[in-house]
Amino acid sequence: MPFLWKKPNTQKRERKNGKEAQALIDASVLKKNNISRLTIDERWTRLFVNLPMSPAIEKAQNEMNELIKKEAMLLQEQESLEPRKKKVMNRIISLTKDAFDNNDEAAKSELRDCRKEIERINERMEKILEDIEKVNNELKEANIRLLNESVRYVFSTLRSNRERAETITRELERIRQKEQELQEELDSINLDWTSYAVQFTELLGSDLVKTLESQYGLEGLKHETDNSGTDAKN
Predict the structure, then answer these.
(1) Of 154, 168, 200, 201, which one has the greatest count of Cβ atoms within 10 A?
(2) Could you tell me the residue ranges of all domains in the chain?
(3) Which candidate, 117, 121, 111, places its Cα nearest to that of 91?
(4) Which pLDDT score, from 0 to 100, does residue 145 have?
């Protein structure tokens, strides 16, 4: 994914002072990929469907969401000022004739108030524009921070998981090999006691064989004894 990196020589991960270098993602990446509000971008949220967010990513996410809320409040206020300003302007037009043609003092007083109100609205609208621009800049920085942190975290996690999976695979292979070796050893020592029991019974008699079985902890082994062994012959 070369588009993620700022310079070609930063595509390889480097370690400096024991710490992994951060991914270098700048504003050009945001513009190229149409990224404006990362926390509400499905392309980003899908990254964490099966992967839990790190504390750093959660913190960056919350900070961006606060900026998005602030921006929405400013835009809402901006929209509310437009009809308010238009209403006052219409009132000024309607008062002008009475104030100047008819020399109406009340109309003049209200006209002055309306003009002051227009000034306040204009000042507030200018301040809102400044605040919106400031929030947009902060959002851009927040996008860059969050995207860099997400890339570092997800790619590092994927690499760690892959390394762990390789370790587990090797361990499972070692266990399978050990199991095979143990099975082969088991097969080599798994003697058929039945045939030996019959032979010893013929040689020594069933009573002595049973006594020997008890002494050597071999009771319960299934075997066929021939009661017509040595004892019967004697």
Answers:
(1) 201
(2) 21-187, 193-233
(3) 111
(4) 92
